[in-house]
């Protein structure tokens, strides 16, 4: 009896601790909500529908953009009124959604998501025939998150909705014990456009971990077991227990699993924020099933992203640890052969794409990002020598040049995209930019007796590229906020950070010219810093000034070059 009592006391204590943690999180979110409401009327931006849809980079030229959305005539009939919305206590409140300054209806927000955002994150698809009422009734969590991410034109509203979404997810998962595809899809949408939100304590990493737990709890990481555990396998296969035989995974479930697969891997490789889901035969099984039926045009983009991750996986597994001197451990010849084999795999994969897809700008950006990842091994720590400069090897210089060309081409493609797309692109695209920024900085500062920095800075200069990025972010900010200097736009913040990084680089470059060349052996390389700390939150924890200052300190030339 006493042991039973002791167990009960321990269980109660554990419950009390969990309740205290959740109460603390809710308090923080309430404070964030209060801060959001203090932004004032200057942050209430009027949403203006574009006069005409821009060319979707994911839509081949031979495909009519209107085939995937509303026609101009139908769009013009949308009434800009906010309907009366009814929510249960576990969802976003009426007050949060019916702010008097907000002029965009829930129907318009859903159409905005379907027509302008969903194709860039093809892992959560809403049929064009689905209405707001159907979505709200059948997928309330997904609906709440769509309302949140499509409120980017009004910062205070989006912050309030974000707080409500997090509270709702915590309540449903931790207190109500819910596990559903709706929760998973909602969290994926939250994470995909997480970078839009302003305010303290972003919850991206926590949300990815919650999504991972849901995937495993729902068993979506593996093929469906075709029979109930209480039935005999042979009987189930003979059809004697048809009622207990489980249906195969739906395409919707497969997309959601692959969405987390890609998100976790891209966050891990570009930001070091999470442990990625590992590749498995089931990943390819999902791709084959989706590719075979191809319900939506965006499914081609989905399969492309997933299979591209498998190529990147080979490079990651070949050089898994940062801080390890692979150049002295393996030697230049084996590294060169490995890198060239990765490049051949990437080229063969690109050759399998349909011409219209291979020429698509966003597809090319993804391909070039993988090329940068494959070749940035050349920027890893050089072997220590007694000479002032390490002796270069032809193999390393070839890889460095490949990395330079890929990085230059990446920014050429990225800067060619209209800034009006930035609000629609998901976070897993922007992390590619963050990584490329760091690699470009490394290339402009890397020291090797055969590496001509004057040539590098002539064809792919760091400072002008940062200036162009800042201009693009400012343009994106002005798309929704004519008073960009108010600082209420997330992209205005991103632009300011690019300028700050540009100023830092210019100062350090002047220091280099005064101090002369320094030995690589004396300093930690930028490659190590980028992989470990620099890209962590580079583009999405950018409101954290403490972290940004730490990044600047770690990437300062006199400390890490």
TrEMBL record:
It comes from the Eukaryota. InterPro entries: prtT (IPR051089). It is found in: Nucleus. GO terms for cellular component: nucleus. Keywords: DNA-binding, Nucleus, Transcription, Transcription regulation. GO terms for molecular function: DNA-binding transcription factor activity, RNA polymerase II-specific; transcription cis-regulatory region binding. PANTHER family: FINGER DOMAIN PROTEIN, PUTATIVE-RELATED, ZN(II)2CYS6 TRANSCRIPTION FACTOR (EUROFUNG). This is Transcription factor domain-containing protein.
């Amino acid at each position: 009896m006493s042991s039973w009592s002791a167990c009960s006391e321990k269980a109660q204590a554990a419950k009390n601790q969990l309740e205290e943690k959740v109460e603390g999180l809710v308090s923080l979110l309430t404070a964030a909500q209060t801060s959001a409401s203090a932004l004032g009327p200057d942050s209430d931006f009027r949403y203006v529908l574009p006069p005409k849809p821009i060319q979707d980079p994911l839509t081949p030229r031979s495909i009519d953009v209107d085939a995937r959305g509303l026609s101009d005539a139908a769009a013009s009939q949308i009434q800009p009124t906010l309907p009366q919305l009814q929510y249960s206590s576990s969802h976003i409140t009426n007050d949060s959604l019916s702010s008097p300054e907000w002029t965009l209806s829930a129907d318009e927000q859903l159409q905005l998501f379907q027509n302008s955002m969903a194709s860039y994150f093809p892992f959560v698809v809403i049929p064009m025939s689905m209405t707001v009422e159907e979505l709200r009734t059948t997928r309330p969590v997904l609906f709440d998150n769509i309302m949140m991410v499509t409120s980017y034109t009004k910062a205070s509203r989006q912050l309030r909705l974000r707080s409500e979404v997090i509270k709702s997810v915590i309540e449903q998962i931790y207190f109500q014990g819910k596990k559903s595809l709706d929760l998973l899809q909602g969290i994926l949408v939250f994470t995909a456009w997480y970078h839009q939100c302003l305010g303290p304590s972003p919850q991206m990493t926590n949300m990815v971990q919650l999504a991972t737990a849901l995937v495993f709890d729902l068993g979506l990481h593996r093929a469906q077991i075709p029979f109930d555990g209480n039935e005999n396998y042979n009987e189930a296969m003979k059809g004697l227990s048809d009622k207990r035989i489980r249906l195969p995974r739906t395409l919707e479930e497969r997309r959601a699993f692959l969405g987390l697969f890609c998100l976790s891997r891209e966050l891990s490789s570009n930001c070091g924020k999470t442990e990625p889901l590992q590749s498995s035969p089931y990943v390819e099984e999902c791709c084959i099933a989706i590719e075979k039926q191809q319900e939506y045009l965006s499914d081609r983009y989905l399969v492309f992203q997933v299979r591209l991750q498998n190529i990147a996986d080979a490079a990651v597994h070949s050089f898994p640890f940062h801080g390890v001197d692979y150049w002295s451990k393996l030697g230049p010849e084996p590294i060169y052969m490995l890198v060239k084999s990765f490049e051949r795999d990437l080229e063969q994969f690109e050759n399998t794409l349909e011409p219209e897809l291979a020429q698509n700008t966003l597809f090319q950006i993804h391909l070039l990002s993988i090329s940068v990842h494959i070749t940035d091994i050349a920027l890893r720590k050089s072997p220590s020598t007694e000479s002032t400069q390490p002796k270069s090897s032809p193999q390393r210089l070839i890889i460095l040049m490949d990395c330079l060309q890929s990085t230059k081409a990446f920014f050429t493609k990225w800067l060619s995209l209209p800034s009006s797309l930035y609000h629609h692109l998901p976070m897993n695209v922007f992390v590619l930019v963050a990584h490329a920024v760091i690699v470009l900085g490394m290339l402009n500062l890397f020291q090797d007796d055969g590496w001509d920095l004057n040539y590098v800075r002539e064809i792919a200069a760091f400072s002008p590229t940062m200036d162009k990025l800042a201009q693009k972010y400012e343009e994106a900010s002005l798309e929704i906020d004519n008073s960009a200097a108010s600082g209420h736009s997330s992209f205005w913040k991103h632009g300011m950070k690019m300028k700050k990084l540009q100023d830092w680089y210019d100062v350090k470059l002047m220091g280099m010219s005064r101090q002369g060349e320094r030995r690589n052996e004396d300093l930690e390389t930028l490659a190590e810093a980028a992989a470990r700390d620099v890209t962590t939150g580079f583009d999405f924890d950018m409101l954290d000034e403490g972290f940004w200052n730490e990044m600047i300190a770690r990437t300062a030339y006199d400390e890490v070059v």
